[in-house]
Amino acid sequence: MSEVVFAGVTKRFGDVTAVDRLDLEVLDDEFMVLLGPSGCGKTTALRMIAGLETATEGTLRIGDRVVNDVEAKDRNVSMVFQSYALYPHMTVAKNIESPLLARKVRVPGEAEPRKLTKAERAEQVGEAARTLGLSELLDRKPAALSGGQRQRVALGRAIVSQPDAFLMDEPLSNLDAKLRAQTRLELVALHERVATTFLYVTHDQVEAMTMATRIAVMSEGRLHQVGPPQAVYERPHNLFVARFIGSPPMNTVAGTFVVDAGEAFVRVGDGRFPVAAVGGEPVVDGTKVVVGVRPEHLLLTGDRSSSVAATVKAVEWLGHERHVICTIAGPAATDGAEDVIVRQPSEGTPPTVGETVHLGAPPQEIHLFSPDTTERLN
Amino acid sequence: MTALARLRSPDHERPTLKDSLLAAAFLLPSLVIFATFFFYPLYRLFYLGLHQQNTFGTAERYVGWSQYTEVLGGKEFRDGLLTSGRYVLLTVPLGLVLGVMLAVSANRRLRGIKVFQTIFASTVASSVAVASVVFLTLINPQAGYFRDVGFISLTDPHTALRGVALSSVWQNLGLTFIIVLAGLQAVPDEIYEAATLDGYGPFRRFFKVTLPMISPTMMFLVVVLVVFALQAFAQVDILTGGGPAGSTETLVWRIFDNQQPRQLGIGAVMAIGLFAVTLVVTGLQFLILNRRVHYGN
Question: Fewest beta carbons less than 10 Å away: which of A159, A170, A270, B175?
Answer without folding.
Answer: A270
